Amino acid sequence: MEVKIHDSWKPLLKAEFEKDYFKALMAFVTSEYQKNTCYPPVSEIFQAFSTCPFEETKVVIIGQDPYHGEGQANGLCFSVNENTAHPPSLRNMFKELESDINKPYPESGNLLHWAKQGVLLLNATLSVRAHEAGSHQKMGWETFTDRVIKTISDNQKDVVFLLWGGFAKKKSKLIDTNKHTILTSGHPSPLSANRGFWFGNKHFSKTNAILEGKGYSPISW
To answer: Ranges for the Uracil-DNA glycosylase-like domain (predicted)?
Structure first.
């Protein structure tokens, strides 16, 4: 299977692609896509890396698993394709955007415009079998995406990491807080948000304030 990523990532991840675990992972994913319906489309598995060049990465949002419903996942965490109903977590993200920065609730749930501004929308696992949440976990994806997080931490500066929920917060150990900023909150899923752990975190305005304070252009959320 071809790994489609922006050229800027290739020298940083080349060694990872040559490791045995990654080769085994690619063999597993190739087999899964041949035998089963899987998401996102094979051409979009690495979309987070093809749409957000390494040197332009200013913000990292970490998700867990791609959506496993038909026509939803497009390779960017929390994002869905155009003309697709917004999943509950994305709805809560957009509600927070409304209250935080007075942005009208978006019609499209496609977050590609975030990615093109330097927001790496990274799921820990980059593929999933249809209607089987977590079906591609623990096959090597997490090893790879942890390495990506560590690579950004080691080779970039002033990146804002948004860690939402317990799973994402565990990634903080990979991040050098002397060079980068971590913002944490509950997950935007209804279970967490409705218990008061998401709404009001103001992560969108806080992220832009941090970026502007360091001389970078803000994200047009």
So the answer is: 49-211
